[in-house]
Amino acid sequence: MVIKNLSEKDREDLEGFLGRNYHGKKSAAISAERFSRALSRSRFGMISGKDLLEIYFQETMESRKERKQKEEKRWQEMIRKAQKEVLSGTLAAQWLEEIQGPEGGKEPEEIWEMLLMGVRILQKLPAKAQYLPVFAAQVTGNPHAFDDGTRGGRYLEQMIRWYLKKRGENTEIGNESPVKVFPLLEKQRLFWKAGILKDDVSNYALATGIRAQKKDGCFHEGMDGFFAEGQPVQIPLSVIDGWESLECPENRIFIVENPSVYAMLCGQWKKNCALLCMNGQPRLSSLLILDLLAKRGTKVWYAGDFDPEGLLIGQKLKQYYQGEFHYWHMTAEDYEKSKSREMISPRRLKMLDNIWDEQLAETAEMVKKEKIAGYQENIWSVYLEDMLSISEIF
User: Fold this and answer.
1) DSSP state of 246
2) Structurally, how many domains does the chain consist of?
3) Claim: this prediction has a pTM higher than 0.70
């Protein structure tokens, strides 16, 4: 027990009762043992400390041990009640057997609510390419229950990690894993593995010239149609989720950072390669396509802008891709031809210190020296020339 904001009289009373010096103290911590010992020496010694406190506060007092035993009993009752809601042998039943008691300080109603929510989450997994708000509404009735930054969102992530671990998935990604190259997408990937799509409207890939085999073994007729028509297509994450493998003409693909360059290449495409647009920082949809391309042994050529962000994206993609990867017109000579009039701030130039790839080192040093950004649009014709004469160059 701690008594705060002690007055002079309070200190005198405590010193007389407990036999301790509280001179100048603003608060006093008093253990139950010290209080009981002092009480036994007083004229009220026939009354126990517990009885005295109950008379004073007009409520039953519990020791820490008694309170812990009571909480444990209540927890076990909740577990037994929840087990009646699930079938034996299911993941939800296994979770109820493994879960430890909650942290102290939570109300019984809150504990029961979280327990039921955990059961309902596991009963809905794996979801089948389901959007997060829809999944949340099915589990809780509230489409925003699992939004980022909320208690429910953190709880769902915890449940998904448990679920994936039971499926044999590695949810603790080591630093050597290519997944760690794009840490902001790690959470999206975890949810995707459980069948939940966190973002589909803005999570798409721009591609040309790829054929996709679905998980049922059939080729995606829509992708075949765009291939036959020689046209690019915007592919949502929910569509990519159903793919098992990809095919590219001559098993090679050219990737560019900017949509404008991608559009110009698509306008002259001769079906002798595939094209992909990163559209800036990679999305999960584009990384999943890279995963499928790597399984097929597809050769990748990547071209990006000559600024700190563009060079870092290229380096990360090379680090991520588990196959043959080449930079495409990203040399210091190409940079000289691509230069604009836009100055790069000292803060952004500092980002170039993170370029460690030897193939980009000379280019990074040149950008540091010139302090000017270079853009793909200024040399787009060299990409087009390569694509049109691909059989001779690659």
Assistant:
1) E
2) 4
3) yes
